[in-house]
């Protein structure tokens, strides 16, 4: 076989439909758009329009709110931490910080910090410094002989 003999299997690639190229083509005249009206013309975006009636998405009540002060933490399970230690990507003897986790490829795109979660098992004795941790994760790390350091929350005074 030579490069100039390469070809697709017959029938594997359909030719594209050339719309609006005469009545004989079968897709001429209206070009598959039906007849007249707004939708037969170009530049149409009707989406939720209901003929002037208030659209249903505007008739229904709104619920909830978006907290603009909410923090977005990247979750890391202790099982994933153990995998990285086993793969020699993280040195268990040194303290494990967010920068160490980033360099090892355990987390990427850290927004407001890293939160340690308790899914999986950890056998290594590690000192972890993260933005947040679940009670189960702290218990599991301390059971293995390590420590979890979480910065203290700053309490705001209520006026």
Summarize, please.
The protein is α/β, with parallel strands linked by helices and 159 residues long. The protein has helices at 56-59, 78-86, 98-104, 135-143; strands spanning 74-77, 114-117, 127-129, 132-133, 147-149. Helix content is 18%, strand content 10%.
Q: In words, what does this structure look like?
A:
- Helix content is 18%, strand content 10%.
- The chain has helices at 56-59, 78-86, 98-104, 135-143, and strands at residues 74-77, 114-117, 127-129, 132-133, 147-149.
- Strands 1-2-4 form a three-stranded parallel sheet.
- It is elongated.
Main features:
single chain; alpha/beta; 5 strands; three-stranded parallel β-sheet; two-stranded parallel sheet; about 160 residues; Ribosomal Protein L15, Chain: K, domain 2; about 10% strand
């Amino acid at each position: 076989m030579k490069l100039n003999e390469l070809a697709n299997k017959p029938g594997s690639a359909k030719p594209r439909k050339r719309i609006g190229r005469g009545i004989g083509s079968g897709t001429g005249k209206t070009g598959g758009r039906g007849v007249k009206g707004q939708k037969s013309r170009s530049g149409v975006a009707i989406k939720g329009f209901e003929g002037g009636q208030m659209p249903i998405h505007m008739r229904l009540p709104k619920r909830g709110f978006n907290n603009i002060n909410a923090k977005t933490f990247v979750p890391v399970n202790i099982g994933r931490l153990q995998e990285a230690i086993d793969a020699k990507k993280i040195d268990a003897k040194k303290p494990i910080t967010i920068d160490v986790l980033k360099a090892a490829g355990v987390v990427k795109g850290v927004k407001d910090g890293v939160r340690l979660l308790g899914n999986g098992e950890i056998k290594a004795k590690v000192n972890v410094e993260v933005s947040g941790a679940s009670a189960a994760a702290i218990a599991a790390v301390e059971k293995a002989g390590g420590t979890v350091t979480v910065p203290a929350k700053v309490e705001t005074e209520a006026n």
